[in-house]
Specification:
247 residues, alpha+beta, 28% strand
Protein backbone atom coordinates (compact mmCIF):
# COMPACT_ATOMS: atom_id res chain seq x y z
CA UNK A 1 0.00 0.00 0.00
CA UNK A 2 1.25 3.58 -0.65
CA UNK A 3 2.83 5.52 2.24
CA UNK A 4 0.51 7.70 4.30
CA UNK A 5 0.63 11.46 3.92
CA UNK A 6 3.35 13.05 6.00
CA UNK A 7 5.54 9.99 5.93
CA UNK A 8 8.47 9.06 3.74
CA UNK A 9 9.61 5.67 2.50
CA UNK A 10 13.37 5.27 2.48
CA UNK A 11 15.10 2.74 0.26
CA UNK A 12 17.53 0.72 2.37
CA UNK A 13 21.15 1.10 1.25
CA UNK A 14 22.36 -1.61 -1.14
CA UNK A 15 24.90 -3.95 0.49
CA UNK A 16 28.43 -3.48 -0.81
CA UNK A 17 28.66 -7.16 -1.78
CA UNK A 18 25.63 -6.76 -4.06
CA UNK A 19 27.14 -3.68 -5.71
CA UNK A 20 30.42 -5.52 -6.27
CA UNK A 21 28.67 -8.56 -7.78
CA UNK A 22 26.66 -6.33 -10.10
CA UNK A 23 29.80 -4.48 -11.20
CA UNK A 24 31.60 -7.78 -11.80
CA UNK A 25 28.72 -8.98 -14.00
CA UNK A 26 28.88 -5.74 -15.99
CA UNK A 27 32.64 -6.20 -16.51
CA UNK A 28 32.18 -9.80 -17.66
CA UNK A 29 29.48 -8.77 -20.13
CA UNK A 30 31.72 -6.02 -21.47
CA UNK A 31 34.64 -8.46 -21.94
CA UNK A 32 32.41 -10.99 -23.74
CA UNK A 33 31.08 -8.29 -26.02
CA UNK A 34 34.60 -7.06 -26.78
CA UNK A 35 35.76 -10.60 -27.64
CA UNK A 36 32.77 -11.13 -29.95
CA UNK A 37 33.41 -7.84 -31.72
CA UNK A 38 37.11 -8.65 -32.14
CA UNK A 39 36.36 -12.13 -33.53
CA UNK A 40 33.76 -10.74 -35.91
CA UNK A 41 36.20 -8.08 -37.11
CA UNK A 42 38.95 -10.65 -37.79
CA UNK A 43 36.51 -12.86 -39.72
CA UNK A 44 35.18 -9.92 -41.70
CA UNK A 45 38.66 -8.67 -42.61
CA UNK A 46 39.75 -12.15 -43.63
CA UNK A 47 36.61 -12.65 -45.71
CA UNK A 48 36.97 -9.29 -47.44
CA UNK A 49 40.62 -9.95 -48.28
CA UNK A 50 39.74 -13.37 -49.65
CA UNK A 51 36.84 -11.94 -51.63
CA UNK A 52 39.14 -9.40 -53.21
CA UNK A 53 41.73 -12.07 -53.95
CA UNK A 54 39.42 -14.78 -55.28
CA UNK A 55 40.01 -18.53 -54.92
CA UNK A 56 43.28 -19.92 -56.22
CA UNK A 57 44.90 -23.29 -55.62
CA UNK A 58 48.62 -23.61 -56.12
CA UNK A 59 50.45 -26.56 -57.64
CA UNK A 60 52.81 -28.69 -55.57
CA UNK A 61 55.46 -31.35 -56.31
CA UNK A 62 54.48 -34.94 -56.93
CA UNK A 63 54.54 -37.50 -54.15
CA UNK A 64 54.89 -41.25 -53.73
CA UNK A 65 51.50 -43.03 -53.94
CA UNK A 66 49.96 -44.07 -50.63
CA UNK A 67 50.80 -47.63 -49.61
CA UNK A 68 48.05 -50.31 -49.30
CA UNK A 69 48.61 -50.53 -45.52
CA UNK A 70 48.19 -46.76 -45.19
CA UNK A 71 44.98 -46.92 -47.22
CA UNK A 72 43.64 -49.67 -44.97
CA UNK A 73 44.49 -47.64 -41.84
CA UNK A 74 42.69 -44.63 -43.32
CA UNK A 75 39.63 -46.74 -44.13
CA UNK A 76 39.49 -48.10 -40.56
CA UNK A 77 39.69 -44.62 -39.05
CA UNK A 78 37.01 -43.29 -41.42
CA UNK A 79 34.68 -46.11 -40.35
CA UNK A 80 35.42 -45.44 -36.67
CA UNK A 81 34.71 -41.72 -36.99
CA UNK A 82 31.51 -42.34 -38.95
CA UNK A 83 30.29 -44.64 -36.18
CA UNK A 84 31.26 -42.23 -33.39
CA UNK A 85 28.82 -40.14 -31.43
CA UNK A 86 29.17 -36.61 -32.73
CA UNK A 87 29.30 -33.99 -29.99
CA UNK A 88 26.46 -31.48 -29.88
CA UNK A 89 27.39 -28.13 -31.45
CA UNK A 90 28.78 -25.53 -29.07
CA UNK A 91 29.23 -21.79 -29.25
CA UNK A 92 32.96 -21.86 -29.97
CA UNK A 93 34.87 -24.70 -31.62
CA UNK A 94 38.59 -25.31 -31.22
CA UNK A 95 40.98 -25.19 -34.18
CA UNK A 96 40.36 -28.01 -36.66
CA UNK A 97 42.90 -30.83 -36.91
CA UNK A 98 41.38 -33.50 -39.21
CA UNK A 99 38.82 -33.75 -42.00
CA UNK A 100 37.01 -37.09 -42.45
CA UNK A 101 34.71 -37.82 -45.39
CA UNK A 102 33.42 -41.41 -45.20
CA UNK A 103 31.90 -41.50 -48.69
CA UNK A 104 35.28 -41.01 -50.39
CA UNK A 105 37.39 -42.71 -47.71
CA UNK A 106 39.22 -39.52 -46.74
CA UNK A 107 40.98 -38.95 -43.42
CA UNK A 108 43.30 -35.96 -43.83
CA UNK A 109 45.29 -33.78 -41.46
CA UNK A 110 44.44 -30.08 -41.63
CA UNK A 111 47.09 -27.42 -42.16
CA UNK A 112 46.48 -23.73 -41.42
CA UNK A 113 46.89 -21.56 -44.50
CA UNK A 114 46.62 -17.84 -45.13
CA UNK A 115 47.20 -15.71 -48.21
CA UNK A 116 49.84 -15.97 -50.92
CA UNK A 117 51.90 -13.05 -52.17
CA UNK A 118 49.19 -12.56 -54.81
CA UNK A 119 46.57 -12.21 -52.04
CA UNK A 120 44.90 -15.50 -52.89
CA UNK A 121 44.06 -18.33 -50.49
CA UNK A 122 47.12 -20.55 -50.14
CA UNK A 123 47.02 -24.27 -50.85
CA UNK A 124 48.21 -26.99 -48.45
CA UNK A 125 51.87 -27.97 -48.67
CA UNK A 126 51.24 -31.38 -50.23
CA UNK A 127 48.59 -33.70 -51.66
CA UNK A 128 47.89 -35.69 -48.48
CA UNK A 129 46.72 -32.76 -46.35
CA UNK A 130 44.05 -30.08 -46.67
CA UNK A 131 44.25 -26.38 -45.75
CA UNK A 132 41.94 -24.42 -43.47
CA UNK A 133 41.77 -20.67 -44.19
CA UNK A 134 42.95 -19.43 -40.79
CA UNK A 135 41.90 -15.80 -41.40
CA UNK A 136 38.26 -16.91 -41.46
CA UNK A 137 36.05 -18.64 -38.88
CA UNK A 138 36.78 -22.10 -37.49
CA UNK A 139 34.56 -24.92 -38.80
CA UNK A 140 31.49 -25.08 -36.56
CA UNK A 141 31.59 -21.41 -35.59
CA UNK A 142 29.32 -18.82 -37.18
CA UNK A 143 30.41 -17.80 -40.65
CA UNK A 144 31.82 -19.46 -43.75
CA UNK A 145 34.83 -21.61 -42.87
CA UNK A 146 36.84 -22.68 -45.93
CA UNK A 147 39.09 -25.69 -46.51
CA UNK A 148 40.99 -26.33 -49.76
CA UNK A 149 42.86 -29.36 -51.06
CA UNK A 150 44.62 -30.70 -54.12
CA UNK A 151 43.16 -32.90 -56.85
CA UNK A 152 44.41 -33.95 -60.28
CA UNK A 153 47.95 -33.93 -58.91
CA UNK A 154 51.15 -34.06 -60.98
CA UNK A 155 51.82 -37.29 -62.90
CA UNK A 156 48.44 -38.70 -61.84
CA UNK A 157 49.45 -39.09 -58.20
CA UNK A 158 46.65 -39.47 -55.63
CA UNK A 159 45.56 -36.34 -53.72
CA UNK A 160 43.15 -35.64 -50.86
CA UNK A 161 40.33 -34.15 -52.95
CA UNK A 162 40.56 -36.35 -56.05
CA UNK A 163 37.15 -37.84 -55.30
CA UNK A 164 35.47 -34.67 -54.04
CA UNK A 165 33.18 -34.57 -57.14
CA UNK A 166 31.50 -37.73 -55.83
CA UNK A 167 29.90 -35.78 -52.97
CA UNK A 168 26.29 -34.73 -53.37
CA UNK A 169 23.48 -33.12 -51.41
CA UNK A 170 22.86 -34.88 -48.09
CA UNK A 171 26.30 -36.49 -47.75
CA UNK A 172 28.08 -36.17 -44.40
CA UNK A 173 31.59 -35.14 -43.45
CA UNK A 174 33.29 -34.59 -40.11
CA UNK A 175 35.74 -32.16 -38.56
CA UNK A 176 37.79 -33.19 -35.53
CA UNK A 177 39.04 -30.23 -33.52
CA UNK A 178 42.00 -29.80 -31.19
CA UNK A 179 39.87 -30.68 -28.16
CA UNK A 180 38.95 -34.06 -29.68
CA UNK A 181 35.35 -33.09 -30.49
CA UNK A 182 33.68 -34.09 -33.73
CA UNK A 183 31.41 -31.74 -35.67
CA UNK A 184 29.21 -33.14 -38.42
CA UNK A 185 28.43 -31.23 -41.64
CA UNK A 186 25.84 -31.98 -44.32
CA UNK A 187 26.38 -31.16 -47.99
CA UNK A 188 23.92 -28.49 -49.15
CA UNK A 189 25.07 -28.16 -52.75
CA UNK A 190 28.06 -28.36 -55.08
CA UNK A 191 29.00 -25.76 -57.67
CA UNK A 192 31.60 -25.22 -60.39
CA UNK A 193 33.35 -21.87 -60.84
CA UNK A 194 35.64 -20.63 -63.56
CA UNK A 195 39.20 -20.14 -62.23
CA UNK A 196 38.87 -16.34 -62.19
CA UNK A 197 35.18 -16.18 -61.23
CA UNK A 198 33.89 -14.09 -58.34
CA UNK A 199 33.94 -16.37 -55.27
CA UNK A 200 31.95 -14.09 -52.95
CA UNK A 201 29.55 -16.86 -51.94
CA UNK A 202 32.39 -19.08 -50.78
CA UNK A 203 33.81 -16.66 -48.19
CA UNK A 204 30.70 -14.55 -47.49
CA UNK A 205 29.98 -13.64 -43.83
CA UNK A 206 26.84 -15.34 -42.53
CA UNK A 207 25.09 -15.99 -39.23
CA UNK A 208 24.89 -19.69 -40.17
CA UNK A 209 27.64 -22.22 -39.37
CA UNK A 210 29.05 -23.33 -42.72
CA UNK A 211 32.05 -25.17 -44.11
CA UNK A 212 32.98 -24.91 -47.80
CA UNK A 213 35.48 -27.24 -49.51
CA UNK A 214 37.43 -26.14 -52.60
CA UNK A 215 39.53 -28.01 -55.14
CA UNK A 216 40.77 -27.67 -58.73
CA UNK A 217 38.98 -29.40 -61.59
CA UNK A 218 38.59 -29.14 -65.33
CA UNK A 219 41.32 -29.07 -67.97
CA UNK A 220 44.88 -28.22 -66.97
CA UNK A 221 46.24 -24.91 -68.26
CA UNK A 222 49.96 -25.45 -68.73
CA UNK A 223 50.73 -21.76 -69.13
CA UNK A 224 48.86 -20.81 -65.94
CA UNK A 225 50.08 -23.89 -64.07
CA UNK A 226 46.60 -24.71 -62.76
CA UNK A 227 43.21 -26.10 -63.76
CA UNK A 228 40.47 -24.18 -65.55
CA UNK A 229 37.76 -24.56 -62.90
CA UNK A 230 37.14 -24.78 -59.16
CA UNK A 231 34.71 -27.19 -57.52
CA UNK A 232 33.14 -25.94 -54.29
CA UNK A 233 31.18 -28.18 -51.91
CA UNK A 234 28.93 -26.11 -49.62
CA UNK A 235 28.04 -27.73 -46.28
CA UNK A 236 26.13 -26.75 -43.12
CA UNK A 237 26.75 -27.78 -39.52
CA UNK A 238 24.40 -30.59 -38.54
CA UNK A 239 22.35 -29.64 -35.48
CA UNK A 240 20.46 -32.44 -33.65
CA UNK A 241 16.70 -32.14 -34.04
CA UNK A 242 16.04 -31.38 -30.39
CA UNK A 243 18.56 -28.52 -30.37
CA UNK A 244 17.31 -27.21 -33.71
CA UNK A 245 13.84 -26.68 -32.25
CA UNK A 246 15.31 -24.64 -29.38
CA UNK A 247 17.24 -22.26 -31.60
Amino acid sequence: MPPRAGTTRETPPEPSTTRQARAARRRRRARRLARRRAAALVCLIGALVALAAGVHLLSAPARTPESPSARRATARRVETVAASKVAAPKATHARPVRLVIPKIGLDAAIEYVGLTGDHAMAAPSGPDTVGWYKLGPRPGNRGSAVIDGHSGYADGKAAAFDDLPELGKGDTLYIEDASGRLASFIVRKTQLYARDANAAEVFAPTSSRRLNLITCTGSFDVAAGTHSQRLVVFTDLEVPEGLARQR
